[in-house]
Records
---
Amino acid sequence: MLEADGADEALNRVNTHSKPSDLRITDLRVAEITGAPFASVLLKIYTNQGIVGLGEVRDGASATYALMLKSRLLGENPCNIDRLFRRIKQFGGHGRQGGGVSAVEIALWDLAGKAYGVPVYQMLGGRFREKVRVYCDTDATVPSGTETGKRLKQRMELGFTFLKMDLGLMQIADVPGAVVSPAGSLEGYRDHPGRGPLKTIEERRVCNAAYDLHNVPHPFTGLHFSDKGLDFLEQYIAEVREVIGMDVPLAIDHIGHISMQSGIRLARRIEKYVPAWLEDVIPWQYTDQYRQLQDATTVPICTGEDIYLKEGFEPLLKSGGVSVIHPDLLTSGGILETKKIGDMAQDRGVAMVIHMAESPIAAMAAAHVATATENFMALEYHSVDVDWWDDIVTGLPKPLVKNGFVTVPDKPGLGIDDVVDEVISQHLQPGVTGIWLPTDHWDDEYSWDRTWS
Ligand SMILES: [Mg+2]
């Protein structure tokens, strides 16, 4: 009896992964950072047993999308991941609006893993691979295929075995006669609505007007590539291939908001350079147009980084309009949803690559799914030039991306020990005054939300 009491007393002193059944969520807080490589929001979910779950809100999204969920989570056992996910999933949406639900879902997996002492990939069913192949994204800002090829070659020398680059509208927007466009329409794409506080109503109006322009779906922009434009783009990828060779996979992104017909013409022009995929040629919602696009070319057609939930992927996969899907865990609904999406794609012979443009928290969440999903091909890495990226967290191999691969450690949860406040504090978003600040004002958020009656 005395011995049993002693054991209980000892257990009470252990405040991590001690009593998963009694684990409860006590708080949600955020750190809004920028430059890793874009703006994103690191999320902490705190518990009554001292363990903290890490998540991340998608690049470009708002912390509000996660914080507004706080009142739905307080007092709950974070190990009931799927039940909590189904409670909150109505508060997510496509694109950045999926960022809050997804961030929370990832932090719940981290907590469950830490509570039971198990890596996330193991809870998903175990390993399909020992290390996760990373594809290195490279913005093609230079107006020369040869120069971009040299930059890509440098990536290969760092050990990357899979590459991606931009090829499209913005490379030829300044070339006279390269783009057929309604007068004035191209200029607007150069302005991007930025982050941070605005001083005047007029600044707000201009910002929202820029939003409107960037939200015109491709079929309605009136933009088409001319033969001269297509010649330029074909020459560009030819120069790139000349430098990097034909052996290495090279994916193509940022074609621009051009017509599907221009997308088909570009795809046919570049077939002989064997792109790994052509990404987001048109909005993913146009399922029938995706089918037409894929039927018209041998280049694998890809989309998915803005799709929320497996239900969003289903029509595209059923239509045969994609050969590669590209979910972002921070939009798709998180870890388990992306595993389900990958498995659904596999049933139709479609490969999964994973979009990722945030900190090592997002990278590890994606790497666990990549480890545990059979049809996974490559994980995006956009931060090869960010020298403080690895310093955001502790407990992971440094560098995390080594010779073009991530090795997922056999540690509980995501495998991250902690985040480094000193590093984060040096890279806050404009207008942000601190990290992990109290969020009490979200404790009583309420509305009678139900998606049926
Ligand atoms: Mg993309």
Note: Residues 99-116 form the longest helix (18 residues).
---
Amino acid sequence: MSTEEKVASHYTHGSLETAILQTLAENGKDIDNLRLRDLAGVDEFHLGRHAATVEFARDLDLAAGLLLADIGSGLGGPARHFADAYGCTVSGIDLTDEFVQVANSLTARCGLADRVSFRQGSALSLPFESGGFDRTTLIHVGMNIEDKATLFGEIRRILKPGGRFGLYEIMQMREGTLPYPMPWAMTPETSFVRSPAIYRQLLEEAGFVVELEQDRSALAIRLAHEARAKAASAGEGGNPGIRTLMGPRASERSGNVNTSVEAGLLAPIEMIARAV
Ligand SMILES: C[S@@+](CC[C@H](N)C(=O)[O-])C[C@H]1O[C@@H](n2cnc3c(N)ncnc32)[C@H](O)[C@@H]1O
């Protein structure tokens, strides 16, 4: 099995749409008339969840009519936010077929299918023409991709000159051994976490100027504490939310990444880079 096949298999659930719709219905949502906010907690798979997406989008200088490609778009929560809050037209691509299908279905249920669509593909060979996009985004995806030089080369290729690439990635902040399983990989075999210095160097070599870099650890830690407190007060019968999405050993995987961020070993880092 190739790394990409292993990664897609890691994220594949098998009956994810049914599980999500059931969770939403149990929480009193009208699944035949879904609103974006009904999906909060189940359609974004990164540290800081929706709050992090909102902050990230503010730094991307988004505007109505801009064409945005979201690489590794998952269930599409960030893509729908860029379209709904800013009026962008968004094309998502993701390796995991089931995520693509569920992303398109949730988008249609929220009435955004005219502006947001998803297709299956690899970030290392993007199914887009050169120079077509004003913005590209990559949110918690690079940890599964070893060849970041090719990844950034592909992202630079599909951007217009002067276009912006926003990335929000988990990076390694100091020497140390990572605990597994992590949310993105059960073992180190499909995990390729790198430092901000390596990201900056590879971005510059691919034809980008890094204009902004921010550490979002404080936000991620605060939200993880809030989520833990909420889960504890709800008890075992509480909203499965993200656990539905994460699959086996969800609590252990969340715990490992949160502990690593709190210890300063890992950090969710945002960078905004301009294509030159
Ligand atoms: C942790 S999830 C993040 C999803 C989404 N960006 C979000 O923030 O909700 C990582 C996603 O990256 C996708 N992915 C990993 N490697 C990829 C690759 N080589 N090409 C395209 N997508 C990839 C996975 O299928 C998965 O959907």
Note: The mean pLDDT is 94.
